[in-house]
Amino acid sequence: MLDLQWVREHPDQVRNAMARKGLENTDVVDRLLEADRTRRAELSELQEAQARSNDVSREIGELMKSGRKEEANDRIAETSLLKKEIREREEAARAAEATVNALLLEVPNIPHETVPDGSGAKDNEVVGEFGERRKFDFEPLPHWEISENLGLIDFDRGSKVTGAGFPFFVGPGAKLERALIAMFLDLASDEGGYTEIQPPLLVNEDSARGTGQLPDKEDLMYEVPRDELYLVPTAEVPVTNLLRDEILESETLPIKYCAYSACFRREAGSYGKHVRGLNRLHQFDKVELVQFVKPEDSYETLETMRDDAERVLQRLGLPYRRLLMCTGDMGFSQAKKYDLEVWSAGQERWLEVSSISNFEAFQSRRMRIRYRPQGQQKTEFVHTLNGSALALPRTVAALLEHYQQANGTVLLPEPLRPYYGADTIG
RNA sequence: GGAGGGGUGGCAGAGCGGUUGAAUGCACUGGUCUUGAAAACCAGCGUGCCCUCGCGGGUACCGUGGGUUCGAUUCCCACCCCCUCCGCCA
């Protein structure tokens, strides 16, 4: 969420930002400002009444102490009306506060000035294309056929046991998955300097709210209502919430975490060839990067974090491209976001495998993650960033397709071999 | 799951119905002293919100939410979390 006081002082910038993000209706801003006026008026009235009440109580205390019991009793008799007033005003102030908070949660983050305007995927800027798309002297197969032929993934039994989108990885398929996770984590921790985290896979409501999955996107998450918990849609949720409600020492920044987790997403919606095979699952593996940085560093960090994610694709030798997301395709909480898409040789299309975002203080304000700048009493909100490095299923798809051979086997890229324990699958 | 103990400021730790935002110690900041440093001494030192151009003032906050009371950190109820013991369990 944005800073209420800032919104109060810059309503036009907020309206402008919403328009850039393609939100026609900016009257939330007006409703918010109005609600804020109401809230402050109610609060003043309440506090004034409380001040009077405190004065009376103090007097009564003094009278009691000096033994003037009857005078005290007279004063006590006078208080009932004031008590009633306070009770009512408390109610009103609370309601006003709740209205303001609810409206504030409806206001999206402000896009950074370097973010291109646009209304959807077509307006994203392709900032660069890297690596060579392989030329095949045979017809490359899509990954679902490769995995079928080699017995890597069992989609049908996954459907039987759980449902569509919950495949079994079997034998070499399972081993490949494990190898990639280990390799990605090593890259992030040993080379990238990220501290490795194994987070819980269930989070409570406060955490889901903290990273912005609630209140709006509850359809995204699987829920365990009996215990009021949610299955994580990404490690971003537990790992960012790790520092919720904390005040960090300035010297500890930047804080860099990497985490592997299974991710659970309901993804209600489209079916068809674009979700075939590994393209879209309800449960998948991902290694996520999260950073907490000083505000002045966050845009530089966005670039280095993007480099960290790209390095994984480079190490795997997979062709990919980098997209700078436009205002309309960016999402509610982000100020700036890159996507990385890997080339799928068997499907001949780009697959999103990573998304790297700067949230500025939008998340940290909600989560109250602050730090104390050197030589300063007042705390400030840190900036948070996160990025995938990488999401596994589509990476696996591209990997199998890119490195498939005419005889049906897959020749793994050199850096992956020690993790997999062999050069070839099949 | 059962029994007991506990949750107070950055940390440690008092308070247990009245002017307590909260003793004390440590940490931190400024000053005195010193050639310099340490020690010592003096002073300051929580957060949110509201009002104010500013000085400043007000209000709320002692795990969370309710209740009793003129007044609650202090009493009552519910919930959450932590610790110890028992049970169960990978």
Quick rundown:
This protein is α+β, with helices and mostly antiparallel strands and 426 residues long. Helix content is 42%, strand content 21%. It has two domains: 4-104, Helix Hairpins (Orthogonal Bundle), CATH 1.10.287; 121-425, Bira Bifunctional Protein, Domain 2 (BirA Bifunctional Protein, domain 2).
Give your account of this protein's structure.
With 426 residues, the chain is an alpha+beta fold. The chain folds into two domains: 4-104, Helix Hairpins; 121-425, Bira Bifunctional Protein, Domain 2 (BirA Bifunctional Protein, domain 2). The chain has helices at 4-9, 11-20, 27-65, 69-104, 143-150, 155-161, 172-191, 205-210, 236-241, 298-316, 362-367, 392-402, 417-420; strands at residues 125-130, 153-154, 168-169, 195-197, 202-204, 223-224, 229-231, 247-249, 255-264, 283-293, 320-324, 336-344, 349-360, 370-372, 380-381, 383-391, 410-411, 424-425. An eight-stranded mixed β-sheet has the order 1-11-12-13-16-10-9-4. The longest helix is centred in the N-terminal third of the chain and has 39 residues, at 27-65. The protein starts with a helix and ends with a strand. It binds one RNA strand of 90 nucleotides through helix 3 and helix 4.
